[in-house]
Design brief:
Helices cover 57% and strands 20% of the residues. The protein is α+β, with helices and mostly antiparallel strands.
Length: 90
């Protein structure tokens, strides 16, 4: 069963509304990635890393896996304090 997705966007000349369907695996991955993208700027790296690792474990071949890996690496680097030496050891 596909998930119903409602997406609102604010356009230059008003708001637009999109209604569509997203396959369940896509929705699960997008929700995890979206939550992680919300956590990283707030400094909640450990929780973001756990979500992203879970997403990679569940959906390793998903087309968005590369984006998940990018955010996972970013969260790990920021958690290390931005120190490239200690980041390389983790």
């Amino acid at each position: 069963m596909d998930a119903l997705v409602l997406r609102a966007r604010r356009a230059r000349h008003g708001a637009s509304l999109e209604l569509g369907y997203l396959p369940p695996d896509d929705l699960r991955l997008v929700l995890r990635l979206g939550r992680a993208k919300e956590l990283v700027p707030r400094g909640q790296y450990t929780e973001a890393i756990a979500l992203l690792e879970e997403a990679l474990a569940l959906f390793p071949d998903h087309p968005m896996a590369a984006q998940v890996m990018l955010w996972w690496a970013m969260a790990r680097y920021l958690k290390s304090g931005g120190d490239s030496v200690s980041f390389g050891k983790t």
